[in-house]
Design brief:
Blueprint (H helix, E strand, L loop, with lengths): L2 E3 L5 H12 L3 E3 L12 E2 L1 E3 L3 H15 L2 H7 L1 E12 L4 E5 L4 E4 L2 E4 L2 E6 L6 E3 L2 E4 L4 E4 L6 E5 L4 E3 L2 E4 L1 E10 L4 H21 L3 H17 L3
Length: about 220
């Protein structure tokens, strides 16, 4: 399931993050790439240190308080957050994200990938995130503060920047629900449950859907 979240960072959060990044040091993005990804990765990333830790915490907080992110993703851990900059000519050609990544608790699985756009699409030309499907591609270039969320299993790329600079946050999530199709079922049921409650309150139908969600979580969740 691929979906976007508008203003996952509110204007104040976005301005605060961008102000900090203006004075931060960026390094070669190949430092965090796997051996084969190094061949196609050409960008810059925020240098590890105190500034990075502060900004990572801000991103985690924003994600965890977002109701859509919570209900669609059901995160167990949000890990490997990186602040990336693509200047003129930079790109990240076709690749798949690593299945396992280092995190504070050890290795974490990458079930879901996310990109949060930090500057306006009018600030740069090119730089689209392109996610490949079986027979087609989808291209994304969202407004500042918005996020695109997609399965880590996909092949994807960032097209070359031909003017200006592209600034984003990327990160990965291990979900309590490993299967993407199971997450989608739970999300659909949660959406239906909320719609029933908004229209009619706590009805017998609401209770049945709630029961199904709870029992599917018992069946599928890895905690």
């Amino acid at each position: 399931m691929i979906f976007s979240i508008d203003q996952i960072l509110d204007p104040d959060e976005l301005a605060d993050i961008k102000q900090i990044l203006e004075h931060a040091e960026f390094v070669d993005g190949k430092l965090t790439a796997g051996w084969h990804a190094k061949l196609v990765k050409n960008n810059q990333q925020l240098k590890a240190g105190t500034t990075q830790k502060v900004l990572k915490a801000k991103i985690r907080t924003a994600l965890l308080k977002n109701a859509l992110f919570q209900s669609a993703i059901r995160p167990k851990s949000i890990h490997s957050i990186l602040f990336s900059q693509y200047n003129l000519g930079m790109s990240y050609d076709t690749h798949v994200d690593n299945a396992l990544m280092e995190s504070p608790g050890g290795l974490s699985r990458s079930d879901i990938s996310l990109t949060i756009f930090l500057n306006s699409p009018q600030d740069y030309d090119g730089g689209e995130l392109v996610i490949e499907g079986v027979q087609s591609e989808e291209s994304f270039k969202l407004e500042a503060g918005s996020a695109i969320v997609y399965p880590s299993t996909t092949l994807h790329r960032v097209n070359p920047v031909t003017k200006g600079s592209r600034l984003v946050v990327v990160g990965w999530v291990q979900s309590t629900i490993r299967s993407a199709s199971d997450r989608e079922i739970l999300f659909d049921l949660e959406t239906a449950r909320r719609a029933i409650f908004a229209k009619s309150g706590k009805t017998p139908e609401f209770d049945l859907v709630s029961k199904s969600i709870a029992n599917l979580l018992r069946k599928w969740a890895e905690v």
